[in-house]
Write a structure and sequence with these properties.
The complex is a heterodimer of chains A (about 160) and B (about 800).
Chain A lengths: L2 E6 L2 E6 L6 H8 L18 E4 L2 E4 L12 E3 L13 H8 L9 H14 L6 H7 L11 H15 L9
Parallel strand pairs in A: 1-5
Antiparallel strand pairs in A: 1-2, 3-4, 3-5
Chain B lengths: L14 H5 L15 E7 L5 E7 L1 H4 L4 E6 H6 L31 E2 L5 E7 L2 H8 L3 E6 L6 H4 L15 E7 L2 H10 L2 E9 L11 E6 L6 E5 L4 H12 L7 E4 L15 H13 L3 E4 L2 H7 L6 E9 L5 E13 L26 E10 L13 H19 L3 H8 L8 E2 L5 E2 L4 H11 L5 H10 L2 E11 L7 H6 L8 E7 L5 E5 L8 H13 L6 E4 L17 H27 L7 E4 L2 E4 L5 E3 H9 L14 E6 L8 E11 L5 E11 L6 H21 L29 E6 L16 H17 L14 H17 L1
Parallel strand pairs in B: 1-12, 10-11, 14-15, 20-21, 27-28
Antiparallel strand pairs in B: 1-5, 2-4, 2-6, 3-5, 7-15, 8-13, 9-10, 9-12, 13-14, 16-17, 18-26, 19-20, 19-25, 22-23, 23-24, 26-27
Helix pairs in contact in B: 10-19, 15-16, 16-17, 18-19
Classes of the chains: A alpha+beta (about 160), B alpha+beta (about 800).
């Protein structure tokens, strides 16, 4: 069986996989990292979003073998080693941006990437458009949008530029 | 210390694990020696099964077993039971055809389970399932209710009454017909409530296990009500006594009703685990969820209101067809009857209502409760009809509502459809919503939007619903086969911390936080010393679960009663310790005090005394400090409110956009305002989804066309605006907390507010009514077809 070597949350793994094994299956079943979820089979829902080489990707839409040599971060790797929550996680809790929690790992990983990718400001419209690939059935998105906007200044170390609000 | 009792927006305790990816959902559970089940399902809507050839599949790598309906029948495995029996107009019971766990003889809808393949890995099971060869003999199918009711239509079940499950009614037809005959004005509306797929983000899953030494079964399942599953599956399907069957519903990723029912896969993995003596896991793929999870809504109705010359509602007459799908799901028959027709008075003084409902079998996925369960259907009908009445009579749609409202001094108010509302103030919620939405300033917004090429409209819905389900004897007399009380077992530990075992279940509602707030409030125990346990039949004595917005009204009240008992026992212990009369002991803020003195003992001291009963009234009182209460509610609860929606329709493309939404809901006392807002916002998003985006569509041959997220439009962040939520409070009069429940109001009030807004936006096109979903192409077509008429004017 083919093998893939990848680094997940800072730890290197070499795993035997089938050609058809998806990254999300590798994470959940081979590495026991069940924080990344599977919510659909058409790449719409975003519950599977992780970071690969610093960018958000849908781990259901990439084969495990395609991640050879990659640096992957899952939700389990987002908080600090001492357990301190990432500002995005803090803001999700503060603003009640999760209910059942199933979409949350993918939502948080997408949000972190989105905020990083907008260093000059992030409007509400940009946030809502940027969440196109993440479905939530519980919250109605209102608080998710609030949480992401609240995390922006914490992640960029400055207030949101007025023009961008 | 921050305030964390009743009324505080306490941040959620459960977030700690969800945000770190440490939730424990059923598909996260892996049991030693686990194997995997894949279900082979019908790919056609109606066919005889002439044979199932398992030979090739059985030889595939890793395959351990293959079972079909015949194997289950040979072991006398029962069918999936229905929990509510409706009677026909003539008093005869509804048709209740068998609902086998795996199809026997026939498949009746695309998705009907036919066989299960169990293998060492999931991929092996999937590969082997493709090698099953099923010899089908296709039969003509009925995909719509109208087709199913035609004389000579193909029969979904041979032993049902020609596809008619029941023909039920409520009200006095002849009295109502008489009023119509004499009415000054009659307004009639035909409308559809579109079929929806609940689509919680977590697909259903189940892990069944049988302990080889004890023979005890454990089922982990994505359920809203584990005790109900244990009862139904144990008693009616697998014949396992409760003491040998544990059901665990751990973290569950959303339900909205779709995870109430006892599904075939739960029975399959449990039974097969006993056969194979290995744990068996089944997880749905999303396309499976579309064809197996119970769908929602799917009504076709004719509604008529008789009015007097002044515009007062005199009588409402409704005739509804309700789709049951191919089999009766667990609560299906009660949704379009007792949870629908009994809400047809709405917030109005209408003195007479007659409603008849025909429930119809079709070759489609079974239909059952989905967020609101009957009340969204009633509300959409009423709130569209009232706007149409305004349209037809030239009256103002707000004024006609006010004129017909039940006034605030009329409570308790007995409706003509069985329900008695305890409290409410519909004028207040309407006033608050119109103010918050700046209804008065709308016309200038409409004009400004026109200049931008947008048709802007505003819509209002004033709704009421019945939840806090339910008084057992009442629903029993109406055909329910279960009680609907709730249970709380509360343990004060020797050192003063508290564990609550509740029969309610949280699948997003935040009970671990909000129910703890009740204990903080009543027992004065610090928040971090209260733990809420739910979802495990080995830990929680009993429960009916969470749906119908009942966890606080029924589950919370059970907790209050258990805490009342704890306080009562604590007072006796305190009286003994402080050598006072029990009548002189007061309890407040965690302390037992002798009235008029400063002699006091904390709950912790009392509890320690109860568990170390050396100085203790041992002759009169048992040691320990633990109480259980079962609470059966005296009535439903009746949240009500007003939703105001503004939409803009693009003049060129017809694409609608919700630009503003205000919800003012009276949910009784608010325990955690943040949680209530979240519940309403989530419900409103689902209502917007129903109104503008979602539709479960079957073709004429019974194939589900909208069978994945590619084809079924789920609301995304860009589809929903900021949702402004406020609450007005009229306390529930029949539970000690005064709570009414808030889980479903968002999905109940919003669809008619959205459609009323769309119709207002299109007022130049003289649209009288529009069924859901009001999609861009639909609106564009309306605007196109009306243009020649308008140009000619």
């Amino acid at each position: 069986m083919p093998q893939v070597t990848l680094t997940v949350n800072g730890k290197q793994h070499t795993v035997e996989v089938e050609g058809r094994t998806l990254l999300v299956e590798l994470l959940r079943e081979k590495l026991g990292l069940t924080g990344t979820h599977v919510g659909c089979d058409t790449s719409q829902c975003g519950a599977c979003v992780v970071h690969m080489n610093g960018e958000a990707i849908k781990s259901c839409t990439i084969l495990a073998l395609q991640t050879d040599g990659a640096q992957v971060m899952t939700i389990e790797g987002l908080a600090a080693p001492d357990g301190t929550l990432h500002p995005m996680q803090e803001m999700f809790r503060e603003h009640h941006a999760l209910q059942c929690g199933f979409c949350t790992p993918g939502m948080v990983m997408t949000a972190v990437d989105m905020v990083k990718a907008h260093p000059d400001g992030l409007t509400e419209k940009q946030i809502r458009d940027g969440l196109e690939g993440n479905l939530c059935r519980c919250t109605g998105y209102h608080n998710i949008v609030k949480a992401i906007a609240a995390a922006w200044p914490l992640m960029h170390g400055k207030s949101m530029p007025v023009a961008a609000e | 210390m921050a305030f964390d009792g009743i009324g505080a927006s306490v941040r959620r305790r459960e977030d700690a694990r969800f945000l770190r990816g440490r939730g424990n959902y059923v598909d996260d559970i892996n049991r030693p020696g686990q194997v995997y089940a894949v279900i082979k399902r019908a790919d056609r809507p109606h066919a005889k099964i002439n044979g199932i050839d398992t030979a090739a599949a059985a030889k595939a790598p890793g395959v351990l077993a293959i079972f079909t309906g015949a194997d289950l029948a040979a072991e006398a495995i029962g069918g999936l039971p229905c929990g509510w029996q409706i009677h026909n107009k003539d008093g005869s019971p509804m048709a209740e055809p068998p609902h086998p766990v795996l199809a026997v003889g026939k498949v009746r809808h695309v998705g009907d389970p036919v066989a299960v393949v169990i293998a060492e890995t999931k991929q092996q099971a999937k590969d082997a399932a493709e090698l099953l060869s099923i010899d089908y003999q296709d039969l003509p199918a009925v995909a719509t209710m109208q087709d199913a009711l035609k004389p000579g239509a193909p029969l979904v079940h041979d032993d049902a009454n020609g596809n008619l499950c029941y023909d039920w009614h409520i009200g006095d037809k002849s009295v109502v017909d008489d009023v119509f005959a004499k009415a000054a004005k009659v307004v009639k509306l035909e409308l559809t409530n579109n079929r929806l797929v609940p689509n919680a983000m977590e697909p259903r899953a189940a892990v069944g296990e049988c302990d080889p030494s004890s023979g005890d079964f454990t089922l982990y399942t994505t359920s809203q009500n584990p005790h109900v599953i244990r009862l139904l599956m144990g008693a009616f399907v697998l014949h396992i006594p409760e003491n040998k069957l544990r059901v665990v519903a751990p973290d569950v990723g959303g339900g909205f009703g779709s995870k109430i029912y006892h599904y075939a896969e739960e029975a399959i993995v449990t039974w097969a685990a006993g056969k194979l003596r290995r744990p068996i896991k089944w997880t749905a793929e999303r396309n499976e969820s579309f064809i197996t999870d119970a769908h929602g809504r799917d009504h076709v109705s004719t509604a008529e209101m008789a009015l007097d010359a002044a515009g007062n509602f005199q009588a409402l007459r409704v005739s509804t067809l309700a789709n049951m799908g191919a089999y009766l799901s667990t609560f299906a028959p009660c949704i379009p009857t007792y949870l629908y027709a009994t809400l047809l008075a709405g917030v109005y003084k209408t003195p007479l209502v007659y409603c008849e409902v025909k429930a119809v079998f079709t070759n489609t996925v079974p239909v059952d409760a989905y967020r609101g369960a009957g009340r969204p259907e009633a509300t959409f009908l009423l709130e569209r009809l009232v706007d149409v009445i305004a349209h037809d009579t030239g009256k103002d749609r707000i004024a006609i509502r006010r004129q017909n409202f039940i006034p605030p001094d009329a409570f308790p108010y007995q409706t003509p459809v069985a329900l008695q509302y305890d409290s409410g103030n519909y004028q207040a919620t309407l006033d608050a919503a119109l103010k918050a939405a700046d209804f008065a300033g709308f016309e200038s917004r409409r004009a400004a939007a026109k200049a931008r090429g947008k048709l802007r409209g505003i819509g209002v819905s004033t709704y009421i619903e019945a939840c806090g389900i339910a008084p057992s004897a009442v629903v029993g007399s109406l055909g329910a086969r279960a009680g609907l009380y709730e249970c709380a077992n509360i343990r004060v530990h020797p050192t003063g911390s508290v564990t609550v075992y509740t029969g309610a279940h949280s699948h997003g509602q935040g009970h671990e936080t909000t129910l703890a707030q009740l204990v903080v409030d009543q027992l004065g125990v610090p928040y971090d010393q209260v733990e809420i346990v739910h979802g495990d039949t080995d830990k929680v004595p009993f429960g009916m679960g969470t749906y119908g917005s009942r966890s606080l009204a029924v589950g919370g009240t059970a907790m209050v009663k258990a805490m009342d008992k704890i306080i009562a026992k604590g007072k006796k212990i305190a009286a003994h310790l402080m050598e006072a009369s029990v009548n002189d002991i007061e309890f407040k803020d965690n302390k037992f005090t002798v009235a008029g003195t400063d002699k006091t003992k904390s709950l912790t001291e009392i509890s320690l005394a109860a568990y170390v009963p050396h100085n203790y009234p041992i002759e009169e009182l048992e040691p320990g400090l633990e109480e259980t209460a079962f609470y059966d509610p005296k009535n439903f609860t009746f949240p009500a409110g007003c939703h105001v929606c503004e939409v803009e329709v693009d003049m060129e493309t017809g694409m609608p956009e919700v630009v503003s939404f205000v919800a003012v809901d009276d949910v009784g006392r608010v325990i955690n305002p943040m949680i209530v807002e979240g519940q309403v916002q989530g419900g409103v998003a689902q209502g917007v989804g129903q109104a503008l985006l979602e539709n479960a569509v079957y073709d004429a041959d019974g194939q589900l066309l909208s069978g994945s997220f590619m084809d079924y439009t789920m609301p995304r962040a860009w589809d929903v605006p900021n949702i402004q939520v406020a609450t007005e409070v009229t306390l529930c009069t029949h539970n000690p907390l005064g709570v009414k429940g808030c889980g479903e109001v968002g999905a109940i009030g919003s669809p008619p507010a959205v459609i009323n807004a769309i119709i207002d936006a299109l007022r130049d096109y003289r649209v009288r009514h529009l069924d859901m979903p009001a999609t861009g192409p639909k609106l564009w077509a309306i605007m196109q077809s009306a243009r020649p008429a308008m140009a000619a004017e």
